[in-house]
Design a protein that fits this description.
It contains one helix and 18 strands. It is an all-beta fold. Strands 1, 9, 12, 13, 14, 16, 17 and 18 form an eight-stranded antiparallel β-sheet that branches. The protein has a six-stranded antiparallel barrel with strand order 3-4-5-8-7-6. Strands 2-15 form a two-stranded antiparallel ribbon. β3 and β4 form a beta hairpin. It starts with a strand and ends with a helix.
């Protein structure tokens, strides 16, 4: 289902990125870490990423960070950053090479949106670090000063859309063109569908501040596998809202299947 895009708000430049709400702590999924930088003597979260090979972390191009932090006591330096380029589609993706290997990685599922093994309509799990929020009568209220916990939320993959976004500035634009998977925020305990068509599911939530680059997982053969990287939030022209955190808001995650050759060439994945 293709909808008109009214506003896709990139809220993850420099120190800002996306996170997960509601407040469901994720005790596992240790392939997911935060991207951190030492600022004024304090390790500051700049974004998130997921280890897909012992020495490789996948994230979005608009994140920064000098280390991949799995826990407050385990930070691994990032020694190389390879950003997706126009030669292979110019998506909002980046691969980070680690200075030492990690022991926990997640498999990538390069799956189609429709057809055999279709992602359309599948329940997905979002896992990341940063701010969380609580729901109210109109949407989600993001809670300040709640970063630093690995959290999960669930949603449903509803649509696919090509998204162009400036990850630079007005004076120095850097345009990325990404094929994205879309999910919406549905009102709990309601029979009404969201702008993309699905109803709220158990544990439904989305992405907010301090977790750009976090993974979207789906279940495949009893295992959670990465199918997209969470990138931005926005609203649709027919959603009746201008607030991406209100019911009807939409999340956009960069779909990995179109960029499989690039990921495999760099990381050696098969």
């Amino acid at each position: 289902m293709r909808k008109g895009l009214l506003c896709a708000a990139l809220i993850a430049l420099a120190a800002s990125s996306f996170s997960i709400f509601p407040n469901n702590a994720e005790p596992g999924m240790r392939s997911v870490g935060s991207l951190v930088t030492l600022q004024s003597g304090r390790w500051t979260v700049m974004g998130s990423g997921v280890a897909i090979a012992p020495n490789w972390v996948l994230t979005v191009a608009h994140t920064t960070g000098t280390h991949f932090q799995i826990s407050p006591s385990q930070r691994i330096p990032i020694v190389q950053r390879i950003t997706h380029t126009s030669n292979s589609g110019n998506a909002d993706l980046a691969l980070l090479k680690l200075g030492q290997p990690v022991t926990t990685v997640s498999k990538v599922l390069f799956a189609n949106f429709t057809g055999a093994g279709a992602l359309k309509g599948k329940t997905c799990r979002l896992v990341g670090f940063g701010l969380t929020g609580v729901s109210n009568s109109v949407g989600w209220q993001i809670t300040p000063n709640t970063t630093g916990t690995r959290r999960w939320a669930q949603n449903v993959i509803d649509a696919q859309q090509n998204i162009s976004v400036n990850i630079g500035s007005n004076t120095n634009p850097v345009i990325k063109n990404s094929k994205c998977l879309l999910f919406d925020l549905d009102r709990p305990n309601s029979s009404a569908t969201g702008p993309l068509g699905s109803r709220a599911i158990s544990g439904e939530g989305g992405i907010a501040d301090k977790d750009s680059g976090s993974p979207m997982f789906v279940q495949d053969l009893g295992e959670w596998k990465v199918v997209a990287i969470n990138a931005l939030v926005g609203t649709l022209s027919n959603s009746g809202t201008t607030n991406p955190f209100a019911y009807g808001g939409v999340g956009y995650s960069v779909w990995l299947q179109p960029y499989a050759a690039w990921i495999r060439q760099i990381t050696g994945l098969r």
